Amino acid sequence: MTRRFLVSGRVQGVGYRWFARGEATRLGLVGYAANLPDGRVEVVAGGEAHALEELAKVLARGPRAAHVTDVVSEPVQLTESFTTFSTR
Question: Does residue 17 have an active-site annotation?
Fold first, then answer.
């Protein structure tokens, strides 16, 4: 199962992508976190459904310096193969 999360708020320049990578890795997920030009962070993660549910919860909280105002989640099909979780 793969989900795409679009995270809004003060999420760039506060270590959010590194936070997402650490949490996704801890949960055994693969994929990436990337800054978007509009100020949001995109997180694409694949793995077990329960791990994706947990990731959604921690993404809504974010790291201490972040201020998350919204997380939109949608199922997606991966167009590339991942073996780890990375930042872009």
Answer: yes
Concerning whether 40 is annotated as a catalytic residue, the answer is no
Using a CB cutoff of 8 Å and minimum separation of 24, what contacts does 78-81 make?
A: 78/2, 78/31, 78/44, 78/46
Class of domain 2-77 (CATH, top level): alpha beta
Q: What is the pLDDT of residues 28-73, one digit of tens each?
A: 999 999 999 999 999 999 999 999 999 999 999 999 999 999 999 9
pTM: 0.95
Where along the chain do its domains lie?
2-77
